[in-house]
Design goal:
Radius of gyration: 17 Å
Structural class: alpha/beta
Oligomer: single chain
Strand order of the largest sheet: 1-8-7-6-3-4-5
Mean pLDDT: 84
Number of helices: 5
Number of strands: 10
Low-confidence stretches: 1-22
Helix content: 10-25%
Length: 236
């Protein structure tokens, strides 16, 4: 479980009701490099040298998404939650999660919202919202927010009060593929967590750096070459 002093997103905003179970255990990716083979990984040739190391293989991600889907199904059996995907980063994870839930015959609704709190490799502290979500579609429903990564928790700490005010859902929980281990505790945390990762900037499987690298199948730690790369060098 997460360390003492951490708060769930439900605890951040106590007006939400309907907490269904304790926060799910996550898989810890160690700070030290893993002994994991990367030679068989495939990626666009223009990304050569843009990674410092492979962090999580696609096969591990899909296996973990399946496990998370089982936990979600156990909690929402007989219900039809709204799975709210935070674009763009969570899109790949969201699709695999939905497929696993379909295999379990779990009913659900889908909604999408685009948020951003990053500028380059740093979180800006300011959340920008875009997209055509109609909050009334969430009113009185069990909502499960699907995120790609939680580090400072800035995005969620801004989103939750807006959902409370505009949508008044029956319950709200969060499922995230990744949480980042920081010295300062996150402002809120997820109930369903895939992996806990070191405090390094990661890319791939939907995660980007200046809109690059979302097209990677695996999750990597970006290298200095990747950070310095000018997207203008690419030919559309």
């Amino acid at each position: 479980m997460h360390g003492a002093g951490r708060r769930s997103c439900i605890e951040v905003d106590a007006i939400f009701v309907g907490v269904l179970c304790t926060i799910m255990e996550h898989i810890i990716i160690p700070d030290a490099p893993r002994e994991i083979e990367s030679a068989d990984r495939i990626y666009p040739p223009e990304y050569e040298g843009h990674f410092s190391r492979l962090l999580i293989k696609r096969e591990e991600i899909i296996e973990r998404a399946t496990a998370l889907a089982k936990a979600i199904h156990n909690d929402y059996k007989g219900k039809r939650p709204v799975l709210l995907c935070v674009l763009k980063g969570a899109a790949s994870f969201y699709l695999h999660l939905l497929e696993a839930l379909q295999d379990l015959r779990q009913g659900f609704y889908t909604e999408f919202l685009r948020l951003s709190s990053y500028e380059g490799a740093e979180t800006s502290g300011t959340v920008k919202a875009r997209g055509g979500l109609h909050y009334q579609d969430l009113t009185g429903k069990d909502v499960l927010i699907v995120e790609d990564i939680i580090d400072t928790g800035t995005t969620l700490s801004h989103l939750l009060p807006v959902l409370k005010r505009e949508a008044n859902p029956k319950s709200v929980e969060v499922c995230t593929l990744l949480t980042k281990r920081l010295q300062t505790p996150a402002k809120c945390e997820a109930k369903y967590v895939g992996f806990s990762i070191p405090n390094q900037f990661v890319i791939g499987y939907g995660l980007d750096y200046n809109e690059l690298y979302r097209d990677l199948k695996d999750i990597w730690v970006i290298s200095q070459k990747g950070i310095d790369f000018d997207p203008k060098e690419l030919h559309d």
